[in-house]
Design goal:
Blueprint lengths: L1 E2 L6 E4 L4 E4 L3 E4 L10 H4 L5 E5 L4 E2 L5 E2 L4 H11 L3 E5 L7 H6 L1 E2 L6 H13 L4 E2 L14
Parallel strand pairs: 4-5, 5-8, 8-10
Antiparallel strand pairs: 1-4, 2-3, 6-7, 6-9
Helix pairs in contact: 2-4
Length: 143
Amino acid sequence: MITEAVSAGFYHSPGWHQDYPRIQILTIDELLHPELNKIPQRFPRVDVALLAINGLQIRFRGNRREVKNAQDAAELCRIIRPRYAVPIHYTFTGGPILDTLALKYAGTPQQLPQEFQQAVAQRAPETTVRILAPGEPLPVTLV
């Protein structure tokens, strides 16, 4: 698991001599496994979860899945209970040759975010899904 922010709390800016609230952001690229059930113990408050949803499979490895699909990412939302979930990597492509010969995806870039949003609504209704365009900011208010 890659953690891109430190635990929620406050950061003291030595330059401004002021405390600023921290936001907890988790990026979890790996597939579902039992260790992920421990995330709420380590990070009881997750503000934003960035979750890969393309379900990438490698054809020459027997279609072995390397990345979560939309359903697995929604299940992870049920486990970690983030305030916001942002799907990522669903527009990834290896290009026409790799996509034809080596890679396989769980759906199209149009289907995957919608499938994720519907699955989260069922499994983790307290989580707000934000489907962002490239470069679009995600305003997060502190609670």
